[in-house]
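Entry for the shared binder. Reason: the reviewer on the internal report wants the predicted structure included alongside the sequence.
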Amino acid sequence: MYLSGSKWNARHKRPPLNLWRILLLVGLIGGAVYVERILVPTVPPLFVPTPTPTRSPATYALEAESFFQAGRLDQAAESYRLAIEANPQDPDLYVALARVLVFAGRPAQGETEARNALLIRPDLPTAHAVLGWALDFRGADHLIEAEAEVRAALASDPDSALAHAYLAEILIDQYVTLDEGDYRNAVEAADRAVQLDPNIVETHRARGYVLENTSNYEEALSEYQRALAINPNLWLVHLAIGDMHLSQAVPDLDRAIQAYLNASAFDPTNPEPLRRIAKAYSNFGEYGKASQYANDAVGLAPSDAGLHGDLGVSYFKNGDFEQAAGELSLAVRGGTTAGGITVLGLPIDPQSPRVVSFYYTLGLALAELERCDEASPIFEALLRGVPDDEVAVGNATEGLVRCGIVTPTATPVVTAAAES
């Protein structure tokens, strides 16, 4: 029997094919294949750090040069170190780092980096030149080697403005410090450096330095200002300008102080600009201000015996003998500061009027405090140790008279706490 309309019809009809459904299914299959074969291999796994692109040494070097132009020498040095890490076989990077380190007041580190450059390329003229400059800053014991290095640079590159500038500084230091050579050779080298390249800081700075050390202070100031026009952000040049303002026929204290403050702003952890401010105020009789800046300098380098000595001299001139004796004792004998910092005392040095002044000023401060049992040995040590220093001998003799150790036969001329 046939039941019309029943869903149980034994002759079930096959539904018609749906074309759109088939196309959708094919698309889904194709998409799955694309994701599996194409997209998945390009997507990093979850929770795995994405690699950081490696910077080229050139970008670090450009960054370092911009820091240098801005007077940010510590950051410039760090960028050059990163450039060296990225390309340790490039000697020019070591030379650039060495130059920055010398400008930053770290010549020993500059020497090391210049020597590193020469390990890679022993005949590199700029490496020899900067090495010589770094050695010059290291002091009198290194001046002969410094000249040899710069002359090696000039043998390879006779028209190197930098090498001539560095040679000028070395030759004038030999003339002033070692009493060797002829200052006219330094003048010639400085003039040649400026002729070869008047657009770099070092040539004008070198000529200014030579003029300063030949007592041509007005011309020296002009040269330092030319150097500053090329790079206005170098603390070392501001420091020199401050000195020159004080060396003119009519010293300009205000401009000198401003120059020193500029130097301090570009190198705020360096106590030297503050030390020179203190010295300037002291020389102009403003002992209260001198003590303030000398104390600030000590705060930046509390282990520096010389800075404690400077502070003690300032206190002495301001009539504060108790504090003067404390600071000068640290400078002369060494000891530990209130903050627990160890200070190593400075021995009497006939070549350093500054250090000698710490000794006789300490003796005079102790005498004012009626502590002659401590003062007398200091005066006697000065008479034995620096018999040719008239100021020291005069102060030591006066101190012994005050303490009743000797009877005055004449009134000595006493110049308390001469500075250098």
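Summary line for the report: The two ends are 133 Å apart (CA to CA).
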